[in-house]
Amino acid sequence: MDIISTILWPIKWVISAVLWFFHWGLTSLGMSPDSGWTWTLAIIGLVVIVRAALIPLFVKQILNQRVQMELAPELKRIQEKYRGKKDQFSREAMMRETQNLYKKHGTTPVASCLPMLLQMPIFFALYQVLMAAAHREPFGLLEAKAMDSFADADIFGAVLRGNMMEAFNEGLPNNTAQIIVSAVMILIMTGSVLFTQLQITSKNLSESAKTGQAYQMQRIMIFVLPIIFIVTGIAFPIGTMLYWLTTNLWNIGQQTMIIRNMPTPGSQAYRDWEKRQEKKAAKKGASAGVAELSEGTELNATSVPKQNTQRQQPVSKNRAKKQGKKK
Length: 327
Description:
Layout lengths: L2 H26 L7 H18 L1 H27 L6 H17 L9 H21 L9 H9 L1 E2 L2 E2 L4 H5 L6 H29 L9 H21 L4 H24 L6 H36 L13 H10 L1
Antiparallel strand pairs: 1-2
């Protein structure tokens, strides 16, 4: 067993346990144990477990990406300062100033990539579990019967263990369905990644951050990522693409909430957030004004002296004269 397999083995075991648990739970609710949709929902359940565990890291990733985008002009200034200086002293000074800048703002270049780096072993471990299913090899809690069910499971006629490349090589039972479903999933995956990147660059970056090198690199990645997904997507099984697609959709929802509630100062999202806060303050002020007006009206009403509304009884002339003499 090589070092990569050794690292992935415990992750594969946990993945098999999570898949088994969700598959068992869904079949207990009445779903067919051999249905592709039962296994699809089990994979989605795996995504929910993984992404929920990574929420703190994802928030930190967004904040680190924001900081690094904001630091881009200062990093550029340091690079310009030492441009053309190739001596050892200048290189060490530039590295030291860069490290001090990152330390001052509490971030590192690797921090923004940490959630993705942590997900990659899970992704490849799931890929190996699907490959084991393709060869009907039991692993972890997925025994022989479960693996046979997983191996034959399909959605829209495309088996979860199969990919587009195998379909082109006519190695799958329904090649046409496999190609169509794989192509649609690759397009949706690519679109979701593009939306995620454009959401950050168009709404959650300040104008100063849009002049830095990090921003330019991110703009390049927007056009590079679709090519990567198209090239690699034809080799990924439907099951792993389901995992990746669900993860992308989760990212869109999570990122939308972050951008809405924790926008970068100076960005379009921040200006929208300020407008919402102003509207809330205006509503709150109007409500407070109505309450004060109502309270003031009640106080004025209680401060007016009550008039004596008791009816006076009529008296005779002789009695009125006697009362006058007493006064």
